[in-house]
Amino acid sequence: MKIVTVIGNRPQFVKAAAVSRLLRERHDEVLVHTGQHHDDELSAIFFEELAIPRPARQLHIAGGTNTEQTARMLAELGPLLDEEAPDVVLVYGDTNSTLAGGLAAAQRNVPVVHVEAGMRSFDRTMPEELNRVLTDHLSELLLVPSATAEANLARESVAGRVANVGDVMVDVSMMFQPRARADLKPLREAGVEPGEYILCTSHRAGNVDVPERLRRLVDLLLALDEPVVLPLHPRTGARLDAAGWLDELAAAPHVRLTPPLGYMAFTSLLTNARRMLTDSGGVQKEAYFASVPCVTLRDTTEWVETVDVGWNVLVDLDADRALQELRREPPTAHPELYGDGRAGERVVAAIDALAPVAA
Ligand code: UDP
């Protein structure tokens, strides 16, 4: 079959790393990069480090509001799909690229396969939540990472077929975490010792786009009493700079600011951290896979299982709670939550099974 895969930003590159290579053993894949993340630090380095095939079609659609960006993607993806005439369109996760790829395909009656379907935070103010819900309802094959996601979709009576394949990010973590953990160079560069620092990422619109909330994040970071490594997402860097708070953070001796890191350097810092502090979706899970307790700077999460088992806790931007939770010891039990690291194989098998319908 001919499959057009639409990806566009950092977490999607990571997810595609578990699938693209396997998919190409049996199908003809045309990788389309929308350009949503385009700087080398957020894009090129992931293709290189994770050995993702080079995109065959590179669009240049970044910036603007979510509405504008999605509209521009639709305008370019429509003709692209007419030209490529794929049997299936494959999308990942919950970004504007996910929704645009899915909608452009569905409007042409091309079956949509959604990997990481069924995730819900139940917070409709998150742009990601709208992208997830809408993409799920236009997909023909919904590949979910967990039983929770399966139950979410059953409740919403989605039209497509649902299959629990496990989480493709587990595959990638299993492939790369052991090597990354053994490489301490990123720790030396950040000036920290294994097990003696916190790694923090924050870039959710709800935390960094609202000045008063961004200030709470800054105050929380300043209140920490141990080293914290903070690889700055460009959105966060820009908001801190605009508010005049970047210098204040940079001046704090325990705060180590870095540019956004490549997957290997980031994973080295994550696997060796004492605790993870984040508002990222993917990083909450990666911390769990690495057995690093996570404190999440949100009041909802899609990855509820990590909270249920006691390895992750939601504190929003409450500094007192964050400080307290960062001291809490994790439970001893560490069950397998999102599959066995062979989700990529199951994604390909599920797509194979579409062949007679799509051909
Ligand atoms: N990541 C990275 N370098 C960084 C921060 C994150 O390689 O400086 C990786 C991280 O390991 C994970 C992915 O980027 O695989 C998560 O992306 P992000 O937090 O941007 O997206 P979300 O998961 O919140 O959608």
Structure described in brief:
This protein is an alpha/beta fold and 359 residues long.
What does this protein look like?
Helix 16 links the parallel strand 12 and strand 13 (312-314). This protein has 359 residues and is of the alpha/beta class. The chain has helices spanning 10-16, 20-24, 44-49, 66-84, 96-106, 127-138, 147-156, 168-182, 185-190, 205-208, 211-223, 234-243, 246-251, 263-271, 281-289, 304-308, 319-325, 343-352, 355-358; strands at 2-7, 28-33, 57-58, 88-92, 112-115, 141-144, 161-164, 198-201, 228-231, 255-258, 275-278, 294-296, 312-314. Strands 3-2-1-4-5-6-7 form a seven-stranded parallel β-sheet, sandwiched between helices. A six-stranded parallel β-sheet has the order 10-9-8-11-12-13. The longest helix is centred in the N-terminal third of the chain and has 19 residues, at 66-84. Helix 11 (211-223) packs parallel to helix 17 (319-325). The termini are close together. The structure holds uridine-5'-diphosphate. Residues 10-11, 14, 201, 231, 260-261, 263, 266-267, 280-283, 286 line the site of uridine-5'-diphosphate. Uridine-5'-diphosphate (UDP) binds next to helix 1, helix 14 and helix 15.
